[in-house]
Amino acid sequence: MNGTSGKYILLAEDNPNDVELTLAALADSHMINPVEVVNDGAEALDFLYRRGKYAGRTQGDPTVILLDIKMPKVDGLEVLRILKGDENLRLIPVVMLTSSREEADLARSYESGVNAYVVKPLNFDDFIRAVREIGLFWGFLNEPSPAPRKPEPG
Questions:
Q1: In a 3-state reduction of DSSP, which class is residue 12?
Q2: Domain containing 31 — which CATH number?
Q3: Any domain includes 152
Q4: Domain-embedded: residue 1
């Protein structure tokens, strides 16, 4: 994505096929929101904290993060815990978009502060429909939280 401001979506997904399907579904819904793609949890954290190859990133925080649980280097649950524990990033909505139907993953996600948990449908059309609806809700309908306020010196 180019530019310094505007609403955009961060997609953290290690499966190239799921990345392609997700991007196609978002485009099919006529989303004008750009999508940044990172391929593992460590890259997601580098992106959000402007480290490494993202040190020069100028745009603000994403409108929503679509996060897979099962990723290499740093898994999605750990990324979620780090984000929700950070005063400056905790208000960014996070949607787990995962193939995991494990009750433990669901419970840990909500305990860690996830805003929504969506199991990737196996059927192609259902997958496209689910991602399109996620994009429409978080990209158009949801009113994002204002930027966190810094405590005033007292």
A1: strand
A2: 3.40.50.2300
A3: no
A4: no
